[in-house]
Structures
1.
Amino acid sequence: MDTSEEADVKLGGAVKQTDEKHASSELREMVWSPKMDLVAAVALPEPNDVILYRFHSLAKLWTHPSPSDTSIVRCLAWGPLGKCLAVAYSTGQVMILSVEKAGVLYTHNINSIPTKLYWHAVDQPEKRLGVPLFKDLCDKMLPEVPTTSRENESRPSVTHINRDILNYLVVSDEDGIVNIYVYGLLSIAHINLHNYSAQHCRALSSCLSRSSSSLVSIGEDDTNVYLTVVNTDVLAARNEEIQVLADKFVKLLSLLEQCDLSVNKMVEAWEDSLMELDSKLNQFAQQKQELKEGTVLNDFLELLLFGTPSDLLKVFLVKDLTERGMKKLGTSLQTYYRTMEELLTINMQGAVESIFYHLNDLYGLSQWSDTFALVGLDTAHVNSALQACGSLCLKINEMQQLITTGTKNLRAFSSWLYRVILRISEQEISERMNSFIPDPNAVAEFLEDNFKGLEESNSRIRLEKVGQYLRDDDLVSPLKLTENNLWDNLTSIPHLAASGLIYKAEPNKSLIQLYKRLALGLRDALTTPAVSVIRTMSIGTQKLLCKRTKFQALQQFSFEREDSSSLIYTAYLSERPGSSDLKLVVTRLVLAEHSLPLYQCELEFGRLGQGTAQYTCQIHKVLDFDHYLKEEIIVLLQQRDEDQQAYLTVRLNLANIPSDYWVCDSAPTVVDAAPWICPSYIKILQNATNALCTSSSGKRDIGSVMLSSRRVRLFMYDVDDDSDDESLTASASMLEESTIGSDKENSQS
């Protein structure tokens, strides 16, 4: 090989070992954050926990437990801004975790086993019109929605998601499906590789180009491994529209979270005090019916008018209801209705009205046929969600009216009964009770609403009417609506009735039913883009990569050079035929050329150091690799000479390998990459008896090598000082002192 080209290799800073630590748990793999000195690790044994460590001390920050006993972590991916972490499980769940809160932001269920995650930040082009396509004024137009207190504030909001730049989470699975999610949340594409292949295939990995105009997917069938290029120009051409939709989706999702919390709080606050009173009153009504002594309504009206109860009613009041029971009921009613009213009107009503505002925005955008309609925003689906939201707003007003009138009349009824029981029992009425004299009209209205016609209709007494709104069933006792001439006139006009501007009240539906209808309508409205976008995508090319083999490692990364040529690299480790050694193959797909050529080369590593006397080993074994930055990779090697068995890492810039060594659209040739590795990029791992894998973050100039499932060496790249403290590995007691955490810390922070 001509070494005259070695002069073109630019010398860089040194690699410095900063420390060696014992991790708090046995680890399987580590993935470094692109923006912070943090590393996410998969713990052993299975089912796996995900642990977040700090770089310098390898101190454990938090642990996220496995969602079930059968969930095994398949892969991890950091968000572009380092605020979120995506975790894929063997059960088909893809969880988006908040780094700050250590909680789940969102969960996708893909109904298959995920194989690879790739979180891609888009290189944003200039605005097509020179100004933003759409400016959301919700911050100025909407009041701030009061937040419902979260349990220990441990559950993060989806507003913590990465939204400063447009980004896509690409999920590949074993059924040959590639899902693309904007911000890791909104599904924008559901690509089935079977449409581009004659046989059933597994999607091993998928990667978007820097501009998002192409998706490169690695898939395998029973015999071969293919590289498939899918044209995703719609993602690049309509990135502004997609970003607007994704921002709306995040805001709607956050408001739905607020509604969920409010509904859950209302269900928890629901009291069964009135249910007990209902039961006693129904037993009293049944007793009167058996004895044929009139009706319950007559007894209570006579008591209200003349102040004298019948003998049966007197026994019922003193023996069954009792003074203590009515006193307790009055106290609990006051607290119960006040809590319900606050949760409904302050928390949930504000969130639902904000959803109504955002849906009206989407309804208007959906009618912009040459922009948002092209990315699948459908007017009919948005209008359906808008109708559901309008009905929910009316139901909240109805429930609010019920609570207001119920509080007034029920309080008057219970206070009146309490005073009657005290008088019958010849007990003194306190000054506090005398300060509140129940309104006889309110009591009479309550009696007529709840006791009239019970015997004729053979129905039950139901004083508690709020709880039925919090069940997923039709209302048992809906409000009696008065005639509404305005409503009748509006619905009688055909054009107005079909305009979608009139919202149905749904008098027989509960609050929970209408809320679920709204959530379903939102899901339908915001999943249609994924169906429409996929129709605009087409296959660019499909190339044979290699015969089917077992990959020990597989990575893809994209890069755009200064000449605007877009590259996608695919690197993989697989076994050599007839040998236990691994071969490192790198492919480079050039997307700027019309023919989409695929260049390949198989890398081996001979004598390193560009002829310096420090490195004399003539052959090295490849153990692992990781993408570092741009077109650079970090490779973990082991010397193979008889008297040299040391482990080392090297940093290789693939752009330094001359184009003559890249073979186009044919089997790769073996290339010795050693001449293009500058000596300062070589790091021998002193006193290392084993090395399992390497991981790095080029944006932070940090990396690590796992020497065992617990021992981790930490490195910094491009440092000026090449001094290194190799004595860190000399003493077992020092390693023991560096152990961070304990077995008791395995629970989630």
2.
Amino acid sequence: MQLRRKASRALHNAFTHYDEQTELAERIKECSSSRNLGQGKLLHNEIQNSRHFENRFLGNLLIDMYGKCGSPGEARKVFDVLLEPNKFSWNMMVKAYTQNGSLDEARKLFDEAPDRDVVTWNHMIAAYAQAGNLQESRKLLDRMPDPDVVSWTLLLTAYAQAGHVEEARKIFDRMHRRDILSWNALLQSYAANGYCIQASQAFEKMAAVDVVSFTTVMAANAQAGHLSEAEALFTVMPEKDFIAWNAMLSAYAQSGQMSLARQIFERMTNRNVVSWSVMVSGLAHRGFIREARAYFGRMPSRNVVSWTALVQALGQAGNVVAAESLFFVMPTRNVLSWNGLLAGFAQHGKIAAAMEVFEKMPQRDEAACSSMVAAHGDCGNLAEAREIFSSMPDSCRGTIVTTSMLVSYAGSGDFSAARELFDRMEVKDAVALTTMVSVYGREGKLREARALFDAIARPDVVAWNTMIEAYANAGQLDQARALFDAMPVDKNVVSWTVMLTGYSQLGQYERALGIFQRMDLDGIQQDDMTLTAILSACSHVGLVGPSKLHFSSMLADYGVTPRIEHYQCMVAILGRAGELGKCEELVGRMPIAPDVGAWKNLLGACSIHGDVDRGDVAANAAAEMDPSNEVPYLLLSNIVRG
């Protein structure tokens, strides 16, 4: 009977001990998830003064809690007093160091660990990768006794995030076993770096796909402008999460198809702040300010991100008055809010207002400084841009703002200053390198331009277009076309327009027309620059019918409002064809005031065809706009003399 009571008491104590341990463990986990360091320290003190002070399980949880709360030193104190730390203890301590950027301490502990498992190795591989030390991550993987699929995927992701897509693919190919996470990492590698075609090809090879796979490839296609492919993927997705719905919504909004964006938005059964912010930004960017405000007013909840999204959208759309009004009624503002208002003023040439915002900012980051330098540079105020740049503290003068100054020099044609600044830059990012490719290209120094282009780790479509344009402007169309055909990233409308313009400028009009036809067949949406180039090509070849068709369908088919350059081209085309009545009629009914170029084109046509009356009207109009130019009267006198 006594033995039974002792056994019962022991069992009761064991359960009580277990219940207490479970309760303490849950409280530690609460502190970890809420990052409540103060409460965690109080709980740690409570455990030290209880019978659980030597409990290794609770000790491991305390190490994890201190690591997550940003106190690796406190975590180490717990680790050092554990009686018999197990592999979980070592892993928690290594993780506490890596989470807080203490890589040297983490590596020292890693090297001392008596029983490293795959988790220990993966912590260190991930830590070096996040710090940008890919070489050390690679060395650790090569030393691992038995790397698992997580180890390989960590390294693959690290190389992809650094832009080394080919190296990421080689790592993927070396993997003995792949799961859906590694396949998704490859997809994300391609998608994040603009390799939409490769992402789609990899997706087709996957034995099994999930919502992440679908969403990644769908977003890649949407970003590349392949809306039909994105729509097809979205339609066949077996399940759609917030990210998928928002990705499709963003695709329509970014391409300007707001009616389709509205349809997607209304079909969403659940919407988060991202969904609402995409609609608000998309509508504001397209000039639907009243509707954007209506959506903003309907938002069930707003945070500083949603407020800032509308401020930025209004500013970028040119409605800076509305942006400023909204900014001043924001309940809270952060540095992005200030930057959004500043950028709105700066991008639309309102330098004084931008400077006033800049002076009032409670905290200026590099983006704000960069906006001011870029604003002055864009307006041709190079001296002011240089003055702001030179007066900035070193803490503000990083790669971004230095690159803005570089772009300002290049844009103003001060190539020697651009080269001097570029040579002084310690860190040269892709934008800086691309800018200098443009500089050397405009100077005709193709060898230097190509060397810098080849130095870009992951040239984006802008870099490719810049190098192609350098070759085209130098008349080396074969090299330009070879580079155009070899582009590993998806071509955009600029890529096609550069080739079209290159052919047109060198008199290869048939090839220019061929490029335009390919754009139509491939579903590439032409812009105003493309249409200017094709009208110019048609003008030289004498294709009046196609010219009229392209011109009349600009707004209806391409969504492009004809500008003065397009009217000038049509005046020249009709004039060469001898249709002087239609030529004069076009000049007379232009919705924008005809400039001296339009009247000169009409005068030139009158000179060719000997039309004195229309020539007299055109000459007087051209001379009135440019009194110092005697050419109009010389042409008119030639017409009169016959």
3.
Amino acid sequence: MPVLTIAPTEIHESGDSALRVVAISEAVEDNWLTVHRLADWLETCGAEGLHAAVPTYDSVLVEFDPVLVSAGQMRAFVKLGLGELGRSPGSSLAPREFDVPVSYGGAFGPDLEKVAEYQGVSTEEIIRLHTEKTYTIRCLGAPAGSPMMDGPAFPKPVPRLKDPRLSVPAGAVSVAGRQAVIAPAVAPGGWCVIGRTPLSVLDIRREPLVPYKPGDILRFRRISEAEFNALAGQELVAREPGGDAMSGQILVQQPGNSVVTDLGRFGGPRYGLPVNGALDQYSARAANILAGNLDNEPLIEITALDFRMKAKEDILIAVTGAPLALTVGGRPCSQWEPVSVRAGESVSLRGIHSGLRAYVAIHGSLEVETLLGSAAPDTVVGFGLQLREGTALATKRSVGPIRQPYFDLPLFRLGLEKPAMGSDLSVDVTDGPDVAEFGASGELLFSSEYTVSGRSNHIGLRLGGELPERTSNGEVLSRGVPVGAVEVPSREELLVLHRGRGVTAGYPVLAVVTSTGLDVLAQARPGDKVRFRKTTVAEATAAHRRSRSQLETLRESVNTVFGLLGIGCRPQWQDLPVAACS
């Protein structure tokens, strides 16, 4: 990128785990260059607690761990970065150019005629305007690294669909507002689809997953249906040339609805991928700690349905999350503490209630594939391990049956405070960066009761109830949205974005659910009642730190007990004086 004038910026809190940095110069190019240079600087500076910097057209969403770094400290770090930009030269890398063949209208572009009618021109004119422009990729957005660009020179901005599609095909070429985009993967969408490219854009075996980056150039070229069929499946390419050994296995006997996941793909948002990962982060962290693992090791997430697996070797497990009936070899066992499983025994989790998700961690963790360093499934790009009957999972370490060394009593009573669960949920939120757009009606969020819809999933929770309304109807420029964003995308439902959310969106963010509140919503079942409670970023950060502190205390206890029993090391209890064992 060239040397630039640093645009003035505003920094807004966006929940307790994110900042939105907005460039506010009248020079649009300066805004774009500033936010992308800032994102590049943040990604390479090595700041403790920084998860991701997601640049868009005129803003950067800075996501961080509030336990490791406060919002104030991250704000100061962002300001430091802005100062550094003014003293460093821009990148000398030339943009690459991509030629994108597109078949317009008909089944390829079902909204072409609608867009033409709205603009008051012919479909041929829409195609001409769309293909005559040279596009600069402004950012990578949802889904899955979509190249987001300034739109063609249509007479008027294109309104989004009133009823978004549940499925837009990969390769769809769409417009909305003054923006244009290509969909790399199948996903829901509310943009107007005017055509489709036959080229394959996304490859989850490649890093980065898409061949382009912000600043690269795209040109669209019209093709016939016959040409489309001939090119189908070819890759989009630039025009320029030039640990531990496996020692065990578990066999899934009844999968229910289960996946292997971890805490999330924190490097994904920069490339337009959602962070995903375990929806109830507290329960997932606790399970791994109780199993003697690092917080972010792969584990099993089970949603709603019964699950059963069989151990081929001796293993040690921990089960957390929603209440359920846990049995090992037919005998009842406790959740929220380590449990020994002998070779040949089956582990059953049945009757999940008062919550929706449970987590199974196995000492030593699991051998699974990763994408951008994470095992978290991504349904949009087709990555991840959905467990099936007969799936065999390789474990990294076998652990013999653990009993109390002198009296053969049950060993583990670690006293972790379990999160409260039920059907009436209180969820803390902070003001969103766009709260002013809702005026007085924004208070309805706190005075109303909402019901969880059965259409909720890992992408977001849909809630029925009395809805706040925007005071304006203008199109919103797509910007980075934090996990937990509360939006009102339709007249029927409130939407709370969760960990599978697209990293960019064009709806105002009324509020942002706190990090601890997201864990509460992860356990919300269809029909549960939700009330929102306003809090401050400072209070939300303090609550998150208290929660993490409890887990650190648990880790110390587990490390002490495991060390004494020789789990992963020589048994240290043998070194205790006799009096200590009396």
